[in-house]
Design a protein that fits this description.
Largest sheet of chain A: 2 strands, antiparallel
Helix content of chain B: 55-70%
Mean pLDDT of chain A: 88
Mean pLDDT of chain B: 97
Structural class of chain A: mainly alpha
Distance between the termini of chain B: 36 Å
Structural class of chain B: alpha/beta
Number of strands of chain B: 8
Radius of gyration of chain A: 18 Å
CATH architecture of the largest domain in chain B: 3-Layer(aba) Sandwich
Shape of chain B: globular
Strand content of chain A: under 5%
Oligomer: heterodimer
Shape of chain A: elongated
Low-confidence stretches of chain A: none
Largest interface: A-B, 41 and 41 residues
Largest sheet of chain B: 4 strands, parallel
Low-confidence stretches of chain B: none
Number of domains of chain B: 2
CATH class of the largest domain in chain B: Alpha Beta
Helix content of chain A: 40-55%
Strand content of chain B: 5-15%
Number of strands of chain A: 2
Number of helices of chain B: 15
Order of helices and strands of chain B: EHHEHHEHHEHHEHHEHEHEHHH
Order of helices and strands of chain A: HHHHHEE
Chain lengths: 92, 287
């Protein structure tokens, strides 16, 4: 929406929400660093086949997730895609 | 000894650990040392992140690349999507110094920097180019000549120059003395990216189309080199089973087929934990 349109239609939202199928993976990446959740069942399966129950990726430490989260927050992506970093969810 | 930084991505560690376990098992047989990239995140998924916000895609990809650069070894990926995301982000950042400066500016506050010093390789590239077919053949000790497989390279392996990823997949499987059944739709997408827009179209106009052709070809299994394609073939079979249409075609990662061929016990890497039963393969091997 241009700045002129913004003056004419002050109540119009300036960001059109992403479709749900795109929101869900982006929300997961911002919350956990990855798209799928690492379930307890899968943690047990990993152990059973000789792997550490939690892989050494962002799943393993919230510090990694926080780094990703703050990195994306710092580049202003939230404004462009309509993500509320306080609620950790999409605005629209 | 060959050394690589293993980029696990999302699907493999959280949903398909048998791919990771079989990869680690075959790597030790082939003299490959895999180094973990601690703290790596989603690549991020190219079909979504690049579309939603290019700056987000490049920044997250550059973070992952810089974590691997700190290890100092080329990255090996087991996912077509991770390969595309990281490889293309790397190319883009190397090509444009302005863009590199901008993305490094994003990373700076977090003590990270992208230098472009390491390459991103799909595991078909590593196996064919770096390990070589002779080394693979010399590890084969189980006769799998009875197994008929349909290959599904996935779109991104055709995106590599000369479509070499798809050729490598075929050559590696041939080296295992496994019969490859041609079904005519090898180049068609599994349908996974289309799931973001229409589950019904993806399942019926892509995956089912392929599954019908694979079933008619008489293949005992589908071999893939990507966890998203794997997920799509299993998910579709489970969906159609609920509608009374049972395909019963197990899906194998290339790493699992290699593990079987190298004589690694199926249960040890989790072949028995697939959603679509692999009993037709395990039963034959054990029996």
């Amino acid at each position: 929406m241009s700045s002129i349109e913004g003056k004419i239609y002050p109540l119009r939202k300036d960001i059109v929400g992403l479709q749900d199928s795109l929101k869900s993976p982006i929300r997961s990446i911002l919350r956990t660093g990855h798209v799928p959740m690492l379930s307890r069942y899968m943690q047990r399966t990993r152990s059973r086949i000789g792997l550490p129950s939690i892989p050494p990726t962002a799943y393993s430490n919230t510090e990694y997730v926080n780094q990703m989260f703050n990195l994306i927050k710092s580049i202003g992506a939230g404004r462009r895609i309509g993500f509320d970093f306080d609620r950790r969810d999409f605005k629209y | 000894m060959l050394e690589y930084s293993l980029f696990l991505g999302c699907y493999i560690p959280a949903m398909q650990p048998f791919a990771e376990s079989s990869m680690r098992a075959i790597s030790s047989k082939l003299g490959i040392n895999l180094l973990d990239i601690n703290g790596a995140s989603c690549c991020p998924v190219p079909e979504i992140a690049r579309l939603v916000d290019e700056d987000l895609w490049l920044t997250v990809a550059a973070r992952n690349l810089s974590l691997a650069e700190a290890i100092g070894r080329d990255i090996i990926v087991m996912c077509n999507g991770c390969w595309e995301s990281l490889h293309e982000a790397r190319e883009k950042l190397i090509e444009s110094s302005d863009l590199r400066e901008k993305i490094n500016g994003n990373l700076k506050g977090f003590g990270l920097k992208f230098n472009g010093t390491i390459k991103v390789k799909h595991y078909t590239e590593v196996l064919f180019e770096d390990v070589g077919l002779n080394a693979i053949r010399s590890n084969v000790n189980v006769d799998l000549s009875w197994l008929k497989v349909a290959l599904h390279p996935g779109c991104k392996l055709y995106k590599m120059s000369d479509e070499r990823g798809a050729k490598y997949l075929r050559e590696i499987v041939k080296a295992l003395n496994v019969e490859i059944v041609d079904y005519g739709l090898e180049r068609v997408c599994c349908g996974y990216p289309l799931m973001l827009y229409s589950v019904d179209k993806a399942m019926r106009e892509r995956t089912k189309w392929k599954l019908d052709a694979i079933k008619n070809s008489g293949a005992n299994a589908i071999v893939v080199a990507c966890p998203a394609c794997y997920d799509q073939f299993e998910k579709a079979q489970l969906t159609f089973k609920d509608e009374g249409l049972e395909y019963g075609i197990p899906v194998l990662h290339l790493s699992e087929l290699l593990a079987l061929s190298f004589g690694i016990k199926p249960e040890s890497f989790g072949l028995n934990t697939h959603a679509i039963s692999t009993e037709n393969i395990i039963g034959r091997l054990v029996g």
